[in-house]
Amino acid sequence: MGSLPNHISEDAFELLATQSKVITCKAAVLWGPKEPFVIEEIQVEPPHKLEVRIKVICTSICHTDLSLWKGENEAQRKFPRILGHEAAGIVESVGEGVVDMKPGDHVIPIFSGECGDCKFCKSEKTNLCEKYRVDPFRSTMLGDGRTRFSVRGQPVYHFLSTSTFSEYTVLDHACVVKIDREAPLERMCLLSCGVSTGVGAVWNTAKMEAGSSVAIFGLGGVGLAVAEGARVSGASRIIGVDINPDKFIKAKAMGVTEFVNPRDYDRPVHQVIREMTEGGVDYSFECSGNYQVLRESFLSSHDGWGMTIIVGIHASPKMLPLHPMELFDGRGIIGSTFGGFKGKTQLPGLAIRCMKGEVNLEGFITHELPMSQINQAFKLLNEGKTLRCLLHVASSAVGLSG
Ligand code: APR
Ligand code: ZN
Ligand code: ZN
């Protein structure tokens, strides 16, 4: 091992075999909306300047992957494509100019990057980055506008700057966060999107005070991450709203204290919540991505000081369903991207809080499958039967070329 460059640890030795080479490996490729994923042998180029190539150990599936699979947004229809944005992995190699990571480092990808240099990154008021902020319409690398993946010579497009349904993926360095080596990768993948988005919406965007009352619309992975953030911050009441009553069982186990199924009532759900809470909750969180729910969520908050936080993704071209004068009632509304976290700066600390058990990650993983069964995993999410299905990604390359 004496010949290893001294900045590379010994257990990263196996990774050196692939440095600077094109890697042939397996990925779940989507050829068109609503088509089954096909496990293909793909080629992954080495990272270019300021890029990182990572070996994906595990990945989980979020509703945003499901929305793209369903083709819910016309402008995102770029195929073939590798989806996936919640994952954890190990750095295989880094491109020129990457100084904060080296082969062997344990990392999580983030779709909301942080360059550290722009006026946004330097501002404490936002977690958006001028250059690497989330862009659902981008399907190639920022550096040269090309893809790093191909299948039988045909380019395969990227998704959310992450594309984690693959044994190897290439990301901009700003979209990779180095975490503690002892952190369990098979749980840390949840910090790539769902859990960070939810707990951060409570801590960073709402800045919720202890003792507050909360309503959460949509009890999927993101909604329950909001519940976890609210529980950790000492919420007095956590009211869960969902049209699927099966969601209440898991939600109860994860700290939601009361439940409302809008279908059980012949009046709008905001009226029900206002009655339950003597005027409305202090904070309401829209985590369903449903346009109608957004208005109900807004009206469920208390006049004078209530705040609604939009966490779900609203792909429809419709405008906010509010009359401007309704804001004079003192209710506020705000969007939360990636839970307001500056990924590279703040996620390592969140990972440590999770390792200490302050934040419960266990409850979120309801299923585990190999990546080869990704179609089954999508079916489970589509049917509302899973919070997060962890996919174990086959961990070795099948060959090298180039
Ligand atoms: N009223 C209440 N709940 C609803 C409604 C509705 N009209 N419509 C859907 N829901 C519930 C679903 O039953 C489900 O439990 O919203 C929940 C959404 O959960 P998931 O599908 O598991 O999605 P999740 O991964 O939690 O993401 C939620 O955040 O990341 C974004 O794009 C994502 O918009 C989505 C949202
Ligand atoms: Zn997501
Ligand atoms: Zn920046």
Question: Can you put this structure into words, describing what you see?
Answer:
- The protein is an alpha/beta fold.
- It has a domain at about 195-340: Rossmann fold (3-Layer(aba) Sandwich).
- Helices cover about 25% and strands about 25% of the residues.
- It is built from eleven helices and 18 strands.
- It has helices at about 15, 65-70, 120, 185-190, 195-205, 220-230, 245-255, 270-275, 290-300, 345-355, 375-380, and strands spanning about 20-30, 40-45, 50-60, 85-95, 105-110, 150, 155, 170, 175-180, 215, 235-240, 260, 285, 305-310, 330-335, 365-370, 390, 400.
- It is globular, with a radius of gyration of 21 Å.
- The model is unreliable at about 1-10 and about 395-400 (pLDDT under 50).
- It binds adenosine-5-diphosphoribose (APR) and zinc ion (2 copies).
- Adenosine-5-diphosphoribose binds next to helix 2 and helix 6.
Write a compact overview of the structure shown.
The chain is 23% helix and 23% strand.
Strands, helices and their partners?
Blueprint: H1 13-16, E1 22-29, E2 38-44, E3 51-60, H2 63-70, E4 86-94, E5 106-109, H3 119-122, E6 149-151, E7 154-156, E8 168-172, E9 176-178, H4 185-188, H5 194-206, E10 213-217, H6 221-232, E11 237-241, H7 247-253, E12 258-260, H8 269-276, E13 283-286, H9 291-299, E14 307-310, E15 332-335, H10 343-355, E16 365-370, H11 374-382, E17 388-392, E18 399-401
Parallel strand pairs: 10-11, 10-13, 11-12, 13-14, 14-15, 16-17
Antiparallel strand pairs: 1-2, 1-18, 2-6, 3-4, 3-8, 3-17, 4-5, 5-9, 6-7
Helix pairs in contact: 5-6
Bound molecules: adenosine-5-diphosphoribose and zinc ion (2 copies).
One zinc ion binds at residues 114-115, 117-118, 120-121, 129-131.
